[in-house]
Amino acid sequence: MRLIFEIAVTHIAGRGRQTLVAVFGVAVGVGFSIAMAALMQGGQDDFVEQLIDTMPHVEINDEQRTARRQPAETAYHTTQIFGLRPREDRRGIINPTAARSWLEAWIPGRLAPDLKLQGVIRYSSREVGASVIGIEPVAERSVSPIIGDFVEGSFGALAAGGNNIVIGDTMAKRLGAGLNDTVAAVSSEGLTRNFKIVGLFHTGTTARDEGEAYVLLKNAQILSARTNAINEIRIKLANPDDAPVVARRIEAELGYRAEAWQEANESLLEALVIRNVIMYTVVAAIMLVAGFGIYNIISTITHEKARDIAIMKSLGFAEADMRRLFLLEGVAIGAGGSALGWLLGFALVYALSLVRFELAATGQEMTRLPIAWSILHYLIASGFALSSAAFAGYLPARRAAGLNPVDIIRGAT
Fold this sequence. Notes:
Blueprint: H1 2-14, H2 16-54, E1 58-61, H3 71-75, H4 96-106, E2 109-123, E3 126-135, H5 137-140, E4 150-153, H6 156-159, E5 164-168, H7 169-175, E6 182-187, E7 192-201, H8 206-211, E8 212-216, H9 217-223, E9 232-237, H10 243-254, E10 258-260, H11 261-264, H12 266-304, H13 306-314, H14 319-353, H15 375-401, H16 405-409
Parallel strand pairs: 3-8, 5-7
Antiparallel strand pairs: 1-9, 1-10, 2-3, 2-6, 2-9, 4-7, 5-8, 6-7
Helix pairs in contact: 1-14, 2-12, 2-14, 2-15, 12-14, 12-15, 14-15
């Protein structure tokens, strides 16, 4: 085996320029594959992290996945009900205190109840449609990332009590209002209540900064004329991956719709899987192109060393040794290109990590390129490169092993 290795090195070194071109081709493919994987994986991780941070891991609301079973359906086997509607549709989670106590007893995380209602925030002659969310400040601190997103005032001022409100800075600009100004909140029931702005937050998400306002839970209940009512319970888990299991148990026990963050963003997560498939398909294509260079050089060596092959086989080298020799040459070029590609890939990823910019037009600010540093990207790129090199070296190696030494020595073609 050592002799075969030395012969392979001699063959490769004998065509130094072509070897360097093939190695550089593999290196460029590996390097750019690593950079592309780091950038795309980083973008995906950053996106999922934002989903996990900005939304509850499990959200319980006062809806049900299927219509509630009616007494007539239980009493009679054949029943059809049309147009059923209660006299007064006052939705909300029934017996919220008991539901909250049951959840706190076993859930590995934190939860916060709220009452969300649609309304209008009015200041002077301007008004903006908004979701007015009634919260308990102490519980809200444990589930909402908005606590750290204040640009003026603070969340603590809301907890002080009174008719206070915190709104997004984009909403404030649209209203022309500022800190300590008094705005009017109008509910869909037509009730109006004045609130003093004690904080302005900026999350970077336009939908929230422009369309959400937070008040104390009791004030939201008064504004909606729904005493002691809540219509949502938001949960943050210690492990976000446990959300589907927790949601299924809650829905089975309480009967209300419990939605895990994976379910709420199912289409987006599927799109990320498809994007990864496309990414690794492109990586495989790049390595396949690099493999053609390796195939070309091994084929040329095989053709030029035909007499050497005949002599070696005459001296007792088996066909398996010939295959092993030229396959080793292809893998050696692939390995050299992979090693150089690792350095190139690291340099590209490091350069991308230094890029800084701001983009607010789309509603989501970014100040850096999201980069994922993972040894897995290097291993996958090298795996593709070595597989391509082995395949590119196998075909000439098979042809070399099948050459007849007698025909070669006699000068037969």
